[in-house]
Amino acid sequence: MNDNKSSENRLKQMVERLKESEHRITPQRYAVLRVLCRSREHPSAETIFNLLAPEYPTMSLATVYKTLNLLKKRGEVLELEFSELGNRYDGNKPYPHPHVICTGCGTIIDPSMLDLEEITSKMMAETGFRITSHRLDFYGICPACQEK
Amino acid sequence: MNDNKSSENRLKQMVERLKESEHRITPQRYAVLRVLCRSREHPSAETIFNLLAPEYPTMSLATVYKTLNLLKKRGEVLELEFSELGNRYDGNKPYPHPHVICTGCGTIIDPSMLDLEEITSKMMAETGFRITSHRLDFYGICPACQEK
DNA sequence: TTTCGTGCAAAAGCTTTGCATTAGC
DNA sequence: GCTAATGCAAAGCTTTTGCACGAAA
After folding, report:
1. pTM (2 decimals)?
2. Residue nearest to nucleotide D23 (CA to C1')
3. Under an 8 A CB cutoff, do B119 and A120 touch?
4. Are A115 and B118 in contact, with CB atoms under 8 Å apart?
5. Which residue of A30, A57, B48, B105 is most buried, as measured by CB atoms within 10 A?
C-alpha cells in the first residue's frame, strides 16, 4: 500500500477530474479508484476485482474493466501490456516510466526516474516519428525470488 | 524485406541450431523460419500464417504458434508482448533492444542500438534485482501516418 | 521403424459488448 | 426524471492443447 497522504490526494484528484467531465461517482467506481490509488503493485483487473468482491458483493469484472478503460481514455491510468502476465495498471503515475519486473513472481516495482529526454530526442531525429510515449521495462529476478 | 545476405545467413544459423538440438526441419517449420528471417516488420503469428497460407495450403495457425514457441524457448526469437496489437516477433535480433512503434498503423522499427548497460547497472544496484532482460519501446506517429 | 511434427477442433484466458435493470445527479 | 452506470451472460480474440494421422531421419 501507498503512504496515506499522497494516495488520498491522488484519489481526490481522480474524483475531481471525473466530476468535471460529467462522470458519476458510483460506489463501485469509487472503490476501483481507491484501489488504484492505494496500491503500488500495479494490479491486474482481476486483482482489483478480487480485492473488492468481499466488500462489494455485486461488483463485477465488467465494471472494473469499464472503469479502467474510462480512466485510460482520460489519461488517469497507465496500462502495461503483457500477454503472459495479463495487463497491469498504474493509477499513481499515469505517465510513461521505467519498471522492474520479476520474471519469477510477476512483482512490478518503480525504480527512481531516469532521464529519457535525450534518448527520446535521438529517436525522433533518427526515425522521423513524432514520439508521444515510451515504455522501458527491465526483467529479472527480485531479491525474494533469489532466496528461494 | 531484409537484405538477402544477412537474412540467409540468419536462416542457415537457425536451421543449424535446430538440427543440433535434434529438431526436425519440416517444410512448414522451414517456411516460418524463412519469414522470420526475411521480414523486418516484426510480424504477428497471424501475419506469418497469412503470408504462408497460399504457398502451403495445409499450414495451420497452430503450427505457426508451436514453431514460435519453440524458437522463443531456445532464444531464437524475441517476443514483443502487446495486448491490443497482438504479440509480435523478431527473428533477426532475438535479444532485447529498443523499438519505435507507430500508434497509428502498428509499424514497428528498430532504431540504432543504444547503450543500456549503464542504466541496467543502476537498476540492479537500486532494486536488488538480478536483471536478465529489458524492453524499451517508444510510441508515436510514423512519418507516413503524419501525412494522412 | 520410431519418434516427432502437423493440423484440426476444442478449450482456455482475458477483455469487450449488448441489454435490461438500477441508481446518480 | 433523465441519463449514465452496473452486471449478467454471451461473444470475441488470441493463444494453447489433445489427439489421431502423417512424415522426417
Report:
1. 0.93
2. B26
3. no
4. no
5. B48
